[in-house]
Specification:
Length: about 160
């Protein structure tokens, strides 16, 4: 099957909603991705932000087969950027067909145009398919990840 890879534009909120459904199923976390889907105005404003990159892979029949969300991080020590892949998923019916690699290759092109020096991504322990994919495309670094809680009274 052939796939097309492209970045979503601000008016493609319906396609982004379809991608959210793919994420929910792929991550086995439908409630997070489907129970409180933002409205079109919010999604359009998000897609319009220059530092937000949402890519989709569409099958030959137009179905959203997978996608990724990446964020551009502007560096301060030099005039360059880094790209962070926040979410990447492929629908089960389309796995092992080069979709994830195609998405990352598409992001590499965008990153190059934006003078990014690296794309980085995290993988959870035990997520062997993701770890294998990322190791085939890049260099593994063992780092610690910390979630620092934000209490509502601290955020004011």
């Amino acid at each position: 099957m052939d796939y097309t890879f492209r970045q979503l534009s601000a008016w493609e909120t319906g396609t982004l909603k379809a991608l959210l459904a793919v994420f929910g199923e792929a991550f086995d976390d439908v409630p997070t991705y489907q129970d409180a889907v933002p409205g079109d105005a919010y999604l359009a404003s998000l897609l319009a932000k220059p530092h937000v990159v949402v890519l989709v892979a569409a099958s030959s029949n137009g179905e959203v087969a997978g996608g990724l969300v990446a964020y551009q991080l502007d560096k301060f020590e030099q005039d360059r950027r880094e790209m962070y892949i926040y979410d990447l998923a492929v629908s089960e019916a389309h796995r092992r067909r080069g979709v994830a690699t195609g998405l990352i290759r598409t992001l590499q092109g965008i990153a190059g145009e934006r003078n990014a020096c690296v794309i980085f991504v995290q993988a959870d322990h035990g997520d062997t398919p993701a770890i294998r994919l990322y190791q085939s495309l890049g260099v593994r670094e063992d780092v610690y990840h910390f979630d620092i809680r934000v209490d509502s009274h601290l955020a004011r």
